[in-house]
Each structure stands twice: as structure tokens, then as C-alpha cells.
Amino acid sequence: MGLTIGVDIGGTKIAAGVVDEEGNILSTFKVPTPTTPEAIVDAIASAVEGARAGHEIVGVGIGAAGYVNRQRSTVYFAPNIDWRNEPLKEKVEARTGLPVVVENDANAAAWGEYRFGAGKGHRNVICITLGTGLGGGIIIGNKLRRGHFGVAAEFGHIRMVPDGLLCGCGSQGCWEQYASGRALVRYAKQRANATPERAEVLLALGDGTPDGIEGKHISMAARQGCPVAVDSYRELARWAGAGLADLASLFDPSAFIVGGGLSDEGDLVLDPIRKSYKRWLVGGNWRPVADVIAAQLGNKAGMVGAADLAREPDPIM
Length: 317
Known about the structure:
Elements: E1 3-9, E2 13-19, E3 25-32, H1 37-52, E4 57-64, E5 67-68, E6 75-77, E7 84-86, H2 88-96, E8 100-104, H3 105-116, E9 125-130, E10 134-140, E11 143-144, H4 181-194, H5 200-205, H6 215-223, H7 227-251, E12 255-259, H8 267-280, E13 291-294, H9 301-309
Parallel strand pairs: 1-4, 4-8, 9-12, 12-13
Antiparallel strand pairs: 1-2, 2-3, 5-6, 6-7, 9-10, 10-11
InterPro entries: ATPase_NBD (IPR043129), ROK (IPR000600), ROK_cs (IPR049874), ROK_glcA (IPR004654)
Subcellular location: Cytoplasm
Pfam family, one: ROK
């Protein structure tokens, strides 16, 4: 069908990339992310225009954090941008003259991994993004499944603990409060406060206090065998694996693809997640067990997936 542009809206920059039908990024163009909603639309259009120079482009896919309608045109709600029923497709088309589709950013990343990354060869995969929060996407029967209203796969807000920790969404006990980068840091700080003698390596990497612990310190300390850092990863993995076991009961995928910043730690985080998943999987000793594998595309997944979705007349159900 030709070249398309994928747009990734980040907190500090908006990146647009020209992507071919094999998932290769041919060129990129980045602009700073403005602070006002209308200026962000203008910046998206500017990034698209910058990326398209010298290329024949047939469409644009935009990955946006938030709830996107079934028609791939309107952002119902975005958590970090003041978009409420924002007709993003219409506005960007008017500015660029190109056909545009809008997709939830986690869905776009999931589609990118399914088509060109760790999901190649699978028909049924569930993608999980473990970053600051927790998101994901559902591909069943080679289709991106978004539900009747288009807002399925908000995995981070599955309630794991009734009346549990307060979530930024306003609810309590959401999965991302127990399995995310924020959760990992919280676990480490709690343990370092309780048993500082087991956290000497970890504390030395920061400012010497539990409050100074950051995610990068936990990773480095765990690789040095620091008990508190290792235990913190195990606690995160316990909750992540339990959630995957629940999703296996719902969707029965052949693989779980784990992406996001935490997946960059490789087997440091994936091995304990696999163990927890198998522990909590109902009938796990007597049934086929889906693989838990690392994503391959890194931060390119959203751009590549959004661009590929722009080629599809409607790969979504």
C-alpha cells in the first residue's frame, strides 16, 4: 500500500516516523510537546510535515494515551492532555491533507510487536507494558481487539485488591499499583526503611536515604545481589504473574509479550514473572502454558504499530 507515518505523543516530544510495509523506520522528525491541547494538534501536524518531506505518504497513524473511540477518530479522554471528546482525526487531516487514524498508544505498541516484533508467528497474544504504569493490548485471531466502545485492554486498572491502594484513576486496588515502575520503587523504599542493613548497596547508589531511591538504583543493586532490591523485583513479579494468570483464563493466548521500561531488565524481571505466572495459573501442571517473552521493538513499537494501523481498513474488533 505504500509508506505511512506513525506518530508517538510523548511527555516531552512528539515523534513522527516514515515506516514501510516491513516495519522499517525510514526517517523521523521530532518536535517539543507543547502544553496546550490545540498547540499539541499543531505540533503533531508539524511533525508529520517534517517527516513526510521527500516521501509519498498514504496515511498517518497517531498513538495517543487515553480512551479512543471505536471509529479511530476521537479521543474520549486523555490523562495527561486536556482532551475531552477531541476530534483528533478531523483536525490533523485538515492540517495535513492526509488520511489519519487515531489509536490508543498501548494498542499501537501491541500491534507493532505482533506484526514486526516478538509476536511474529503468533495469532493470539496479549501484550503488557510495564513502565511507570501498566498498559497493554489484545490480539486474538490476528485482530486487535478493542471492545464495543474501543476502550478495552486497560489492564492497569483491573482491580486486583478490593479496597486496596488508591490509584491515580480514582479507584482502589488497581493492578498498576502493584505491578509497575512506581510500585517497584515503593517496594524498595518500604523495605529499605524497615531493614536498612539489607539495603546497603541500594542506599549507597542514591543519596543514602530510602527517599532517594530511584528505579535505576534498584536495577543496579539487584544485579549486585542486594537483598532488598532482589526482593522488590520478586514482589513486583508476584503481582505481575498473578495478573497474567487471570488474563490467561480470559484469553488463552499462545504468548504474553512484556514491554515497557521494566522489560529492558530482561530475565532479572521476566524470570520471576514466569515463575509467579505458572504458580497462579489454574491447572498449570495439566495444561499448555503460554510463553512469557520480552518485547523486541523497544520504544519504536508505538510508532511502527501506529503507522501500520494506518494501512489497515479496519483490523480492529
